[in-house]
Amino acid sequence: MNAERDKNMRQIDKKTDVDTLNVKDITIRSLDEYNIMKCIDSILAIDNLSLGHYRFWYKENFFLELPRKWVLSKIALLNNVLVGYCIVSAYATNKAHIHRMSVHPRFRMKGIGEMLIQHALVEAFHEMVAEITLESLCDNPAANIFYEKLGFKELGEGGVNRYLFEKDKLSKSNKYYVINNKGNRRVFSIKVNNFTNKNSINKIEVT
């Protein structure tokens, strides 16, 4: 598996030029149960590079069946090479959650992460999802600033408790900073309608 991941990283290096990258060259597509079979090695490679030091995900995590996951999740491609992904699924009645998102370190600060979340939000709008949540770590300020820039708001104690109840995670409440000041997790949320009211959904083509 490590050899396959190295191969995928070499493919990215050969086919892409970061200095001349334009976001118009990026294609965002849905990650469904069919194309994940072709993308999984690249996803694992990027995930290990970007997030492995926080919490490692195995192949089984990415293949886990969750409500509307194969509709809401997105991948970013450059010259048919995967450079980022966003794993999203539905929960409760009309909510969705971003479980995992990453862009290859070489291609950060290019707007790719923003594109992934924008497309996920538009897909959520079409799927009648009202709110999207995500978790982040207190010691990851760059990510937290990024989410807030996109319009996500940090939930207070009441909002986090409601989130944990809906996700059946109340037993883990001590891991969340607003509940326990020794906790290292934060929860952010965005109202999908607020996003779509500020951004023309016709400008973002869902594929």
* Count of the domains: 1
Shape: globular
Give the H and E element order: HEHHHEEEHEHEHEH
**How far apart are the first and last residues' alpha carbons, in Å?**
30 Å
What strand order characterises the main sheet? 1-2-3-4-5-7-6
Cα-atom Rg, whole angstroms?
17 Å
Q: What share of the residues does DSSP label as strand, in percent?
A: 15-25%
DSSP strand count: 7
Helical fraction = 25-40%
Examine the coordinates and then state which fold CATH places here, giving the name of the CATH topology.
Aminopeptidase
- Identify the CATH class: Alpha Beta
Structural class: alpha+beta
Q: Total number of helical segments?
A: 8
By CATH, the architecture is named 3-Layer(aba) Sandwich
Task: Determine the mean pLDDT.
Answer: 86
Largest sheet: 7 strands, mixed
User: Which residues sit in consecutive blocks of at least 5 with pLDDT less than 50?
Assistant: none
CATH superfamily: Gcn5-related N-acetyltransferase (GNAT)
Question: What can you tell me about this protein's structure?
Answer:
- 39% of the residues lie in helices and 22% in strands.
- The chain contains eight helices and seven strands; from the N terminus they run αβαααβββαβαβαβα.
- It has helices spanning 2-15, 36-51, 59-63, 69-72, 112-126, 141-149, 157-166, 192-198, and strands spanning 26-30, 74-78, 81-91, 95-103, 131-137, 153-154, 185-191.
- A seven-stranded mixed sheet has the order 1-2-3-4-5-7-6, with helices on both faces.
- Helix 1 (2-15) crosses helix 2 and helix 5 (112-126) crosses helix 8.
